[in-house]
Model the fold of this input.
Amino acid sequence: MAASNTTKTKYIFVTGGVASSLGKGIISASLARLLQARGYRVAIQKLDPYINVDPGTLNPYEHGECYVTEDGAETDLDLGHYERFIDEDLNKYSNLTTGKVYWNVLNKERRGEYLGSTVQVIPHITNEIKEFVYSVGVKTAADVVITEIGGTIGDIESQPFLEAVRQISLEVGRENSLFIHVTLVPFLRGSDEHKSKPTQHSVKELQGMGIHPNIIVLRCDEPLEESIYQKISLFCNVRLDCVIENRTLPNLYEAPLMLEQSHFSEVVCRELGIDAPKPDLSEWVEMVEQSRTAKNTIHIGLIGKYVGLHDAYLSVAEALRHAGFFHQARVEIEWIDSEHLTSENSEQALGGLDGILVPGGFGGRGIDGMLAAAQYAREHGMPYFGICLGMQIAVIEYARHVAGLPDADSGEFDDQCPHKVIDFMPGQSSEIDKGGTLRLGAYPCVIQPGTTMERCYGSTAVSERHRHRYEFNNEYRDLLKDKGLVISGCSPDGRLVETVELADRPFYVGVQFHPEFKSRPNRPHPLFTGFIGAALTFANGR
Done:
């Protein structure tokens, strides 16, 4: 039951300064988990300053993975952190971009909702942002709303968001709002000391926008000296215990525990006038301890075209680690660029692995390498897990080398090929807009009894999140089934092939959906635990 809150909803805003990629998302997610552990209902959202309507059309090298919610929203990857930390499903109200703000405002203007007034950044853009922030609290009946503002203080793109949250703070009252500023404290090897000046300048710039941070979180790689806390407290005008260390950790799930050692959530509750019980972190502590007690190490090859940026496959990597926690195994991910993988070098590149995973993606670049990986896994009895594109790869490879269709392909890669075993879904085509038009969000799947899928899930009915435009071509269903490919999961009407597998091995599975989005550190996804379990068996049988 949620802790009693006699006041109105509390609003917490998380900003970042000095540099990007400081872990504002982890700080926000950690705080959400800590407040949740104190009995409060917490809602969390991300405001992104880029002008894209959503990250759905962004190259993964630009922004990392595109995370998909249950209701089909294409969102920032930080929402994955939020869901994994608080173990709750978020929605379209959890992510807002500058592009979406202007889209909404311009549509309202075209409909005449502003009654002919001149549309301006203030009040129309800022009011749209404020309405979005307020709405998440109303829709979730949250005690606390945590809002992370993307970008870095000083970026021109972030200014409307900062102005909007400044106004919210005035409207709800300072007693019901809190600003947390995350900054970098660099360590200079030459002088062997940390430097506080970048943080001071960042806070000064934030203050110039009318925002005075209540808590300052300091990102660092080395433990901070006491003098740093004192200096930042004095010159940034915050209490000494409101200066919190956020040291880089080998396991991001240790972050809530480390922050709580500095009384992070206790300070937040005090500053907001919340009288809350101590957090119950027993389940989280148990999960973290389990992650530290690995008895084995296994090597999983992740075969992708964006491996130069690991965040492009963030949820997949985390889901693999979650399954490792479950099996008390350390999962070492071998990041293999599919563009450099061929049938000729596959033995050298893949021979030392315990399992192969081909994740989702779009476009024809690097496909030959993925096909080589699927073939190697099939021919050597190695556990294989294909996700979205990875399932389509498994189907193409099987059609080419087992079913007697050497020129089989996907219509995405070769629209003129004679055997398109993968093709556009109904309602999809090359003529429609790319953004927000895929099959998105949660859909049901019926699983065939006696399959690997059923053994993993322990059920014949599941729901998983999708993000794709192409599907298994039903014209080839009978042929491939006759040649030994098992159609182990379909849509309830039987029309859409959702999963395929091979019956003669412990784990050779392809799924059209994205199970990684529903994996949690304390509740790993059953397909990933099945895959890692098979990889452990394979490793022990070498």
Q: What stands out?
A: The longest strand covers residues 296-304. Residues 1-7, 427-436 have pLDDT under 50 and may be disordered. Residues 377 and 384 are 6 Å apart (CA to CA).
